[in-house]
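Notes, p. 3: input format for complexes.
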Amino acid sequence: PYDGPPKEEVIAMRQQFLNPAIFHFYKQPVLITNGHMQYLYDEKGRRFLDAFAGIVTVSVGHSHPAVMKAAADQLTKLQHTTTIYFNEQTSLYAKEFVERMPKNSNLSRVYFVNSGSEANDLAMLMARLYTGNNNVVALSNGYHGTSVGTMGLTALHTWKYPVAHGEGIVHAPCPMSFRGTHGDDVDAYVRDLNNVIMTQTSGRIAGFFHETIQGVGGGVPLLDGYLPKAYEAVRAAGGVCIADEVQTGFGRTGTAYWGFENQGVTPDIVTMAKGIGNGFPLAAVVTTPEIAQTLAQRLHFNTYGAQPVVSAVGRAVLKAIDDDGLQENSLRVGARLMQRLKTLQDKHDLIGEVRGKGLMMALELVTDRATKVPAKEETTVIFERLKELGVLIGKGGLHGNVFRIKPPMCFSEADADFLCDALDLALSEL
Ligand code: PMP
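Output follows (430 residues plus 4'-deoxy-4'-aminopyridoxal-5'-phosphate):
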C-alpha cells in the first residue's frame, strides 16, 4: 500500500519546486506509485494498462524480476566507479551489446552515455571528425533531442527555442505517406534530399540523421525503399549515415531487432536510448572502429556512462528480450493490434490513418478524411476518456492529433483487445 504524501501534496510540491516547463498528461493528473510488467497502479491501487511504457522506455516490463535482481545484486557489490578503472560488468555489457548488431556490419565499437540527446550529440561529433565536413542533414518532422546541438536536428517548432542552436544543420522533407509533400513517391523525396545537399550545404556533408519510424513526430514510418536511396546520396556527398534507434530498436518493430533492418540498410553510426535500459539512464552510440578512432585524438569522458549498476541492468535487459521472446511477441501482438485498429478505422471516420510496425503503432485523427484537418479536440476528449477506462496511451504529432501506442513489449493479445475495446467505446461516445 502507498504510504507517501497525499496526491494533492505531491502535485503541489511538483508545481512549486520543479521547473514549469516539465509538462504532464491529463486534466486530472495521475499519480503512479507502482508498476508490474505492462500494468501501472495509482496511490489507491487502481490498475492501468500501460500502452506508452514511460514513452517507449520500459521495454521488457515494469519491475521485471530479472532486471530488478541484476540491479540489486550489483548494488550490493559495487555501486559506482567510472571507466578510469575496469569493471567486469561494463566489459561484459559491451561484448554482449555488440553481439546484437547485424552480423554483416562493422558496427563493433560502443560508447555508453546517459540519454538520447547525449548519444546524438556524440554521433554528430564523430561524423564531423571522421568526414572532416561540418554540415549535417536531418529529416523534417523528426525528433532527436533537446540539447543545444540536437535541438537543431529536431524539426518540430514546438520543441525549438528562439536561441542559436544546431549550427550547420539543414533539413530535408520527410518521406511520409499521409502528410508528405509528395505522397508515396519515394524518388521525389530522394531528389529533395539531393537538392538540400546541393543548395544548403557545401555539397560535402558530415552525416544524415533519421529515425526509421518517427516517434515524437507522430509514429510516422519512413516510406519503404527510401533509406537505401538516401544512404547512397549521403555517401556520395561524403557523409555517414546515422540511424536514431532510440524508439525503434531492441525488437519493438517485431520484424527485426533494429528498425533500420526493415529497410535493408546498414548505418555507419547507430544511437540508442530509452528501451536499452528499461527506464535506467542509459544510452549508446555504436559505430565502426574507424569512426570510433576519431574521438581518440582528444580526451573524452562521461562520468556515468556504463557505470556498473547500469551495465548490469543493460545486460539483464538484453537477456530478457531474448529469454521472454519479446521480438516475436511484438510481431504477434502487433499484428493483432493492427488488425483490430484497422477494423476500428472502418467503423469510425475520425481515424484518418493507422500506421506502424510491431508494438510501435499510431493512429492519426482527422475531422475530414479528404482535407485531413487534425481532430485536435476530439483527440483530447478520447485521450482523457481512455484514462478513465483504465488505459494509458501516448499523444503526439505536430498538431497533437496522433495517438501513439508503444507498450512494454510483454503486452499480450488480451491487452491489445482491451485497449481496442476501450478505444471503440470512447470513439462511439463522441
Ligand atoms: N531520439 C529520439 C527518436 C527520441 O524519441 C528521443 C526522446 N523522445 C531522443 C532522441 C532524446 O532522448 P532523451 O530524452 O533521452 O535525451
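The mean pLDDT is 97.
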